[in-house]
Every structure is written in structure tokens, then in C-alpha cells.
Write a structure and sequence with these properties.
Elements (H helix, E strand, L loop, with lengths): L13 E5 L6 H14 L3 E5 L3 H8 L5 E6 L8 H13 L4 E5 L2 H5 L3 H15 L4 E5 L7 H13 L4 E3 L11 H10 L5 E5 L5 H10 L3 E4 L2 H6 L2
Length: about 220
């Protein structure tokens, strides 16, 4: 595909990610060292590793992003807000939260709004919130609703996927999500992005950030 005009170095689009169940502290330290070397936008880790990642990256120009309510979003709003607050207190400046997908599909927009709003409120002044809508489980109408609910309560980003469900990011979903929110809200594509060509397609479709465990491969491909 033809090169697109990037607004910043490709590495600064990437959240260098390790969310596997069996991730060890040694692997998290390696992730952080790689993120510093390549100057990725952030490392994205489970909240139990927020403090370790913060210690590794303090002053290194790489943010710490933590997932909360991950990967199902099936938590009470209070529980998700508490996890987010703990992660922010431990040094995370970005929070990637999963919406209660079942509530959205049931038409219970108030629960979705309450959950996102509780997380945003819990970390205001400490961290921004990216809202994972798990697009592979939603109709286009539901994707639009989820994005608008996220913006209505102060989310900084909407994000396509956890990467742990039945599908990942698609150009269609990124473009639809970009159209569903104002320019004040950014879009993160995640799930199945393993090479430079795919990453550039997502950026061309409207992604401001890419979540990937293959960040080094993406930026190393010519």
C-alpha cells in the first residue's frame, strides 16, 4: 500500500502490549526496556504491573497504560473504578477499560454510561481513559452508541478490541468509530495488528493509537 503521511513517528502511535495471563515480572521489565529503546507511546500491561512498569519507565518518555475490567468488562462500576484508581495511584497515566458489553446489547445504556463515568471520575487528574467497546461482538448501531456514550462522560479514546474475544480491529470499525465521535476523542485500534502494512491501514482509517504486542516488528519493517 502507498505510504500515508504520519503526524508523528510510527512508534509514537503504538502501545507496546503484554497482557497474557502468564506474563512474568521479568517479561514486563523486558517490555519496558523495549518501549524505552523504541520510544513507543506506552506500555500496556495488566494493573498488577502498574507499579513495576512505572518504576521502569519513570522519566523515560513512555507512558504506562493499564487495562481494567479486562477482558470481559463484567464487573460492577464500583469495582472497575476502584481498579482504575489503584492503577493510577501506582503510576498508570492511561487506563484502557472494557465496557459491560451485555448491558449495551440489552439496551441498558445507563449502566454503560455509569460504568465508564465511574472510571473516568476515579482517575480524573491522574490518567486518561480509553474505552474498549469489543466491536467484534456489536452491530454497527451498537458500536456507534457505545462510542457516543463514552464521549458523553469524558473518555479520551474509544478502542476497538481487547484482542481476547472473537475478533480484532478492522478498518471498517476504525472508520465507523472515528465518525461516531467528535475530534476531541481519539480512536485506538487493537487486536490482530502484527505488521506495518496493517498498522498503516488502521491509521489511514482514523486510528490515533495502535495496541500491539508486535510493536518492534511493526516499526522495524521497511
Amino acid at each position: 500500500m502507498p505510504e500515508i503521511q504520519l503526524k508523528k513517528p510510527l512508534a509514537k502511535y503504538i502501545d507496546h502490549t503484554l497482557l497474557k495471563t502468564d506474563a512474568t515480572p521479568v517479561q514486563i521489565k523486558r517490555l519496558c526496556a523495549e518501549a524505552e529503546e523504541y520510544q513507543f507511546a506506552s506500555v500496556c500491561v495488566n494493573s498488577c504491573y502498574a507499579k513495576l512498569a512505572h518504576e521502569c519507565l519513570r522519566g523515560r518518555g513512555v507512558a504506562v497504560c493499564c487495562v481494567v475490567g479486562f477482558p470481559l468488562g463484567a464487573m460492577s462500576p464500583r469495582a472497575m473504578a476502584y481498579e482504575a484508581r489503584c492503577a493510577a495511584e501506582d503510576g498508570a497515566s492511561e487506563i484502557d477499560m472494557v465496557i459491560p458489553v451485555g448491558a449495551l446489547k440489552a439496551g441498558d445504556d445507563e449502566t454503560v454510561r455509569e460504568t465508564i463515568g465511574a472510571v473516568v471520575e476515579a482517575v480524573t487528574g491522574r490518567a486518561i481513559v480509553k474505552v474498549i467497546i469489543e466491536a467484534c461482538l456489536l452491530t454497527d448501531e451498537e458500536k456507534v452508541r457505545a462510542c457516543r456514550l463514552a464521549e458523553s462522560v469524558g473518555a479520551a479514546f474509544v478502542k476497538t478490541s481487547t484482542g481476547f474475544s472473537s475478533g480484532g480491529a478492522t478498518e471498517h470499525d476504525v472508520a465507523l468509530m472515528r465518525k461516531s465521535v467528535s475530534p476531541a476523542v481519539q480512536v485506538k485500534a487493537a487486536g490482530g495488528i502484527r505488521d506495518r502494512e496493517t498498522a498503516l491501514k488502521m491509521i489511514a482509517a482514523g486510528a490515533d493509537r495502535i495496541g500491539a504486542s508486535a510493536g518492534i516488528q511493526i516499526v522495524s519493517e521497511g
